[in-house]
Amino acid sequence: MTTLFISDLHLEESRPDITRAFLTFLEHRARGCEALYILGDFFEAWIGDDEKTPLQNQIAEALKALSDSGCRLFLMHGNRDFLIGQDYCDRAGVTLLDDPSVIDLYGTPTLLMHGDSLCTLDEEYQKFRTNMRNTQWQQMFLQRPLADRQMVARQLREISMAKNKGKDEFIMDVTPEEVVAAMEEHGVQRMIHGHTHRPAEHPLTVAGKPATRIVLGDWDTHVWWLTASADKAPELHKEPL
Ligand code: MN
């Protein structure tokens, strides 16, 4: 039995190639697997479960079919799709996971995160993140008409793109001390996250012992996924999109 991890697909209407790659991934790679974890930024944008675009519906149906076939599905919010709600998860047969979450991955406690909360050098973004994750703000936002929300989402995206252009590379990556602190806090020697679009396996030392941080890749030019099973250490894979 195999468990799969993916993140940062950034599914959107303007990238039908990514949607196709994901549907193929579900049919071939994910068929028969024990569990599939999606660690955030699955969709490029999310402004409420009531939007119900054809793309969102198509993806929910495909996920539901995999879930019905016996694969357990888990979804963690990213910084772009943090408004995905229980309604969509129910339609897709997916369990919403808290960020962070610790799972028992074939006997090894493993910390799962999207990864944006680890980029603490980007103080401006962390302030924005705190505001966006405020439940009251979210409830107010979700009550606004769809067209309003679509406009706000477009504006936020433009602002974010303009701001990130001027930021140094190291600011956009995780803060090493933050990684160690999170792993020590949760008592784990292994972490899996996405967000930075820098797929790699990083050895490090946590609590005086060897540890691993695995970064998942984004689906812009390649399909990236991580496999784990009882008899094999987690392994990153990629193939052209
Ligand atoms: Mn992200």
Describe the structure.
This protein has 241 residues and is α/β, with parallel strands linked by helices. The chain has a single domain (2-240), classed as Purple Acid Phosphatase, chain A, domain 2. The chain has helices spanning 16-28, 54-68, 86-92, 123-132, 135-143, 146-165, 176-186; strands at residues 2-6, 35-39, 72-76, 95-97, 101-105, 108-112, 190-193, 200-206, 209-215, 222-229, 232-240. It has a six-stranded mixed β-sheet with strand order 4-3-2-1-10-11. Helix 1 (16-28) packs parallel to helix 2 (54-68) and helix 2 (54-68) crosses helix 3 (86-92). The longest helix has 20 residues, at 146-165. The structure holds manganese (II) ion.
Task: Provide a brief overview of the structure.
With 241 residues, this protein is an alpha/beta fold. 35% of the residues lie in helices and 26% in strands.
CATH level-3 fold name: Purple Acid Phosphatase, chain A, domain 2
Mean pLDDT across all amino acids: 95
- C-alpha termini separation: 25 Å
Overall structural domain count:
1
Apparent shape: globular
Top-tier CATH class: Alpha Beta
Helix content: 25-40%
